# Entry
Amino acid sequence: MNRSNHPHFNPWLALVVVCFGQFMVVLDATIVNVALPAIQTDLGFSDTSLAWVVNAYTLFFGGFLLLGGRAADLLGRRSLFLAGVGVFSAASLFNGLATSETMLIVGRAIQGLGGAMLSPAALSVITTSFGEGPERTKALSVWAGVAAGGGAVGLLLGGFLVESLSWEWIFFVNVPVGVGIVFAALKWVPNSVQEGAMRHFDIAGATTVTGGLVALVYAIVEASSWGWTSGKTLGVAALGIALLVAFVFIERRSPAPLVRLELFKLRSLATGNGVFLMVAGGLFAMFYFASLYLQNILGYSPLTTGLAFLPVTAGIGIGATIAEKLIPRVGLRPVLLTGMLVAAAGLAILAATTKVGGHYPGVVGGLFPMSIGMGATFVSLTLVATTNVEERDAGLASGIFNTSQQIGGALGLAVLASIANSKTTDFLGGIVGKPSVVEQQEALVSGFQTAFIVAAALVAAGTVAAALLLRRRDVARIESGEVSAVPVA
# Structure
């Protein structure tokens, strides 16, 4: 990067600006959870379609994340960062003005696309502004801290805005923040590009993988109302699978593929991402169901719900710190497997304590150990999935891991929401006459319990897969101390 072309360049000021952008993206991934009951009531979402408020965002964010990273290298990191902030902010305004299910879901998808442009461009600014060594490690630690803090602040800020103003303000708040980021970026962020790179965009690959995932998730979400073996469900699922197969063929023939498939021959990368798909599917859906349970069953206000998730933030930090200390001493595999088992146990406890007339201490009894296991698991899997790759593939490996997180979370939520809705429907179907308020709550709780049990099973399955597939030689560099345990956000 030619820093002299930018007279105001200071890498630490550039770090502050791009971290604000990333903070906005991460915050928006969680801020919506505490607003879900209010959104459902105001716009008339069904229990089934409500999951799309979350999934539309994560699918488009994950589906276009790799394309966004490549576009940042070729078009200029600041250029794409600014475009991403603009799209994200405009979509936020559109969401706040939404008057129907369709309008909000479309807006959330566009918001996810903006995030997919913004986030990899921001990370590229950091990696090109700081040389390898202590400075870059410190910068990436700040980046990871902002990512973790954004999730916690999102829950609290979401509760405050919904309770004090209305749910629309969880989106409106992004607009002035986005404008401020644009002016700051124009002043302090350089517009570096990758020299000598082939100017080719794998738009066909990004479109087929995103379209395939959207179709697959849509089939899963609607299966509870269409029927799992109905022609509609099977047809849409087949379309999704066909598009994903087409994506594989496109990647094999593309001169500059979105994903170089030969990377998956690396056992550590393939295992790390495969396990994370299962783990993310189980853990990320927890926020969705726990938020609905706290508000719709225990009667918590949005702000109180946000405060109720503070132990989760603390637990993730504790788990991550423990993992960083223990991996060099006892090895990565014991830390990873223990972390996943603790997370699965926490979800199982949550299933047992989720009931009509339940209480917060019982909920925390599941949330806190789950979050400790979650922190240890994320640090361990980040290292597994991004180690042993060549330097030229480091960015791609990080992008694949981020995509696994987003797509795993979206697919997991789709499956669990569909299963929970089916369980609730079956419960209500067994009641003669109009169900009472208590019976309606019991039906919802039966769905939540089932979702938590299946989530625990997904994390447990990931534990088994990691134990069987991850070899000592796959993590030798990590355990020898060659690789620092800094999470890739």
